[in-house]
């Protein structure tokens, strides 16, 4: 399927691994030139080279933390007029909200709410002027079904969701769409890290923990990051301009609701 975005330019944040990397790879397969960011230079450069070899598109690696003003400036300097923006950042740590102080909350809000908002602010008017734009925010299934030990993620990402619901409807008439992708359990480093910690606490095997997570999904498995990347590319398609302000949940059916 031709998504009609060949030759477009995209910024994909936190793209050295996991779901961000999957989104970057899927966009590249559809002919989109990329600027990718991540905090770890070596991993980012390796991912950039892998995408170049696999797809032949131009990939510019910009090391930096997208949760900081400096990281955002660096990404935008490399691609000041993107057609596509994929917002992503690592999630806050798990824990008990009683243990979190103000600084913990500020870091979570900076990364998972304010950074995407500031990136949208930087690029959306240019998209409106050019008559094309696709913005996808990677949030979390916890926006719809809160996870008790991920309270900071629940709160910060829900705040972003509320903001996007308003701005998306203000720019849709200009063929600029803003939507959110809500991942459930996908086989990423973050899921593995959680499984390792759970295995340590319960004296069980890591594979057993992952299999347990898989049983919680009607699909009977955890997600493949490539599936997530393809969903992102679909939302960025030229033909997806009527999908506005939506929260696409990718959790294998775990959230039990007639209305999604």
Tag the structure with descriptive keywords.
7-stranded parallel sheet, 7 strands, alpha/beta, 14% strand, 260 residues
Distance between the ends = 26 Å
- Major β-sheet profile: 7 strands, parallel
Globally, the shape reads: globular
* Proportion of residues in β-strands: 5-15%
Low-pLDDT parts are none
- Count of individual beta strands: 7
In the sheet with the most strands, the strands line up as: 3-2-1-4-5-6-7
Count of individual helical segments: 8
The chain-level mean pLDDT equals: 94
- How helical, in percent, are the residues? 40-55%
Helix/strand structural class: alpha/beta
Q: Order of helices and strands, N to C?
A: EHEHEHEHEHEHHHE
Summarize the structure.
With 260 residues, the chain is α/β, with parallel strands linked by helices.
Describe this structure in words.
The protein is of the alpha/beta class and 260 residues long. Helices cover 47% and strands 14% of the residues. The protein contains 8 helices and 7 strands; from the N terminus they run βαβαβαβαβαβαααβ. Strands 3-2-1-4-5-6-7 form a 7-stranded parallel β-sheet, with helices on both faces. α1 (18-29) links the parallel β1 (9-12) and β2. The longest helix is centred in the middle third of the chain and has 29 residues, at 102-130.
How would you summarize the topology of this molecule?
Layout: E1 9-12, H1 18-29, E2 33-38, H2 41-55, E3 59-63, H3 69-78, E4 84-87, H4 102-130, E5 133-138, H5 151-171, E6 176-183, H6 189-202, H7 206-215, H8 225-235, E7 247-250
Parallel strand pairs: 1-2, 1-4, 2-3, 4-5, 5-6, 6-7
């Amino acid at each position: 399927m031709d998504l009609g975005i060949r030759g477009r330019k995209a910024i994909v944040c936190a793209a050295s691994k996991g779901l961000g990397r999957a989104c970057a790879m899927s966009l590249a397969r559809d002919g989109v030139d990329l600027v990718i960011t991540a905090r770890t230079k070596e991993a980012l450069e390796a991912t950039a080279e892998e995408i170049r070899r696999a797809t032949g598109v131009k990939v510019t690696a910009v090391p930096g933390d997208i949760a900081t003003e400096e990281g955002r400036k660096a990404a935008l300097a490399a691609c000041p007029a993107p057609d596509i923006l994929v917002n992503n950042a690592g999630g806050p740590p798990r824990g008990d909200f009683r243990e979190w102080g103000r600084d913990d909350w500020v870091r979570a809000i900076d990364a998972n709410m304010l950074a995407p908002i500031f990136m949208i602010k930087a690029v959306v008017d240019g998209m409106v002027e050019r008559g094309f734009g696709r913005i996808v925010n990677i949030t979390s299934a916890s926006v719809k079904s809160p996870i008790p030990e991920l309270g900071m993620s629940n709160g910060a990402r829900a705040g972003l969701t509320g903001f996007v619901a308003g701005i998306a409807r203000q720019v849709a008439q200009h063929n600029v769409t803003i939507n959110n992708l809500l991942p459930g359990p996908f086989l990423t480093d973050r899921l593995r890290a959680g499984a390792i910690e759970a295995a340590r606490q319960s004296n069980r095997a890591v594979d057993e923990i992952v299999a347990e997570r898989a049983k919680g999904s009607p699909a009977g498995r955890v997600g493949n990051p490539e599936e997530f990347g393809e969903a992102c590319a679909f939302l960025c398609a030229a033909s997806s301009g009527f999908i506005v302000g939506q929260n696409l949940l990718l959790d294998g059916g775990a959230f039990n609701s007639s209305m999604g």
